[in-house]
Amino acid sequence: MSLSKSLHKHSWMLQGTKIVVTGGAGFIGSNLCEYLLAQGASVVCLDNLSTGSRENITDLEKNPHFTFIQGDIRDLSTCLAAFARADYVLHQAALGSVPRSIKDPHTTNEINVAGFLNALEAARQTGVKRFVYASSSSVYGDLTESPKVEERTGNLLSPYAVSKYTNELYAGVYQLLHGLPCIGLRYFNVFGRRQNPLGEYAAVVPRFINQLKKGERPTIFGDGTQSRDFTYIDNVIQANVKALTSSPESTGKCYNVACGATISLNQLFATMVSLAARYQPDVVNIQPIYAPPRPGDIPFSLASIERSKKLLDYHPTHSFEEGLAEAIDWYWTQDY
Predict the structure, then answer these.
(1) Tens digits of per-residue pLDDT, 202-213?
(2) CA within 13 Å, CB half, 13
(3) Is 285 exposed, middle or buried, given 0-12, 13-18 or 19+ CB atoms closer than 10 A?
(4) How far is 19 from 50, CA to CA, in rounded Å?
(5) Which has the closest alpha carbon to 14: 31, 39, 34, 38?
(6) Which residues are catalytic?
(7) For 3-190+232-259+303-317, CATH number?
């Protein structure tokens, strides 16, 4: 089923509403902005462009129902101005990357915790109807149980994980004390169009694709048997829209956003090579480089999506292979 068919009965509920997307010039945020505009919503994109890109929203700025505010969630007055008269908030703004948080925990905390609290407080003060925010599978820490279910987490392994778990605690308190309906979405290794493949902290999927495109050997940290529940961007759009339109009983909880399938990094690389060979046959000769595991990395990750299916009506439209095929098709047309 396509994304549009999956969301047909939900999207009409967003027509004529005003939705703020923090981090809206980033990878996930810009895809959300694009979809919401197409459904007839008015969208305010708040982004300081520290990791997002103006290029991601260039086409969107031609739409009269789109407003871009260059500002920082670490400033409460900026959040209050952006959230004014908004119906909903999709909070995607954050400083990602486990390794970056280990190297610089203070900045991660300032943006992901203090900035998140500003967004919550602004939503409360401006009367936002529902606050949906991006959490992370990193909150499961060293939990060995598989698949991961929302009720149980382990010891956290990085400042990034601490920041995301703190978000969940704050959201719970704001719903309890102030009646602000909140839903947290625990993303599992999201990939897809507009995800930046460059830089020290680039995610594995776009980085590998870009390296294969250039004929370079990607580096796998560990022996490649560590696994992830890779999740295509269209599945994440679906989860956000359904979280905005789900029943009141669904609020005050966190939900896994994933495919419910585990893929090792070796499998990821092999599938990627097979798909990329359609464009560049000689990639089949490229072998990865193996390096020591990185501190804070979770060895195995598989999500249970039963709660998401039951309470959000979330049903992934793209498997890992289908999403990867679309992602490679997109990246091969880009110039990075």
Answers:
(1) 789 999 999 999
(2) 13
(3) exposed
(4) 22
(5) 39
(6) 160
(7) 3.40.50.720
